[in-house]
Amino acid sequence: MTQTRAPWGTQRMGPYAVTTTSPQYTPVIDPETQIAVIVDEQGRTVELGGHGTSTSGLTSTKTVPGDGAAPGGPSDTDSMESYDQDESSG
């Protein structure tokens, strides 16, 4: 009688790491400023730290054959995306 070997990965398994409970945060709209704020379980405003800014742009390029004096052959269109992100403070 042959015995089936356990898959090799099961020998590497261990117990799950100990976890902690995260506090419950809820986004709400401040009725006076109309700005979203985050509140904790007791209704206190929570500061989540600074956030960086980023910009993104799509620049298109077009290639037309010939010197432009007369209609040319097929043209080629392409685009290039740029993306810049500032460092966030916090």
Automatic annotation (TrEMBL):
Residue spans of biased composition, Acidic residues class: 78-90
Pfam families found in the cross-reference section: Actino_peptide
Comp. bias (Low complexity): 53-74
Ranges for region Disordered: 1-26, 46-90
Name of the molecule in the record: ATP-grasp-modified RiPP
Organism: Streptomyces cheonanensis
Lineage: Bacteria, Bacillati, Actinomycetota, Actinomycetes, Kitasatosporales
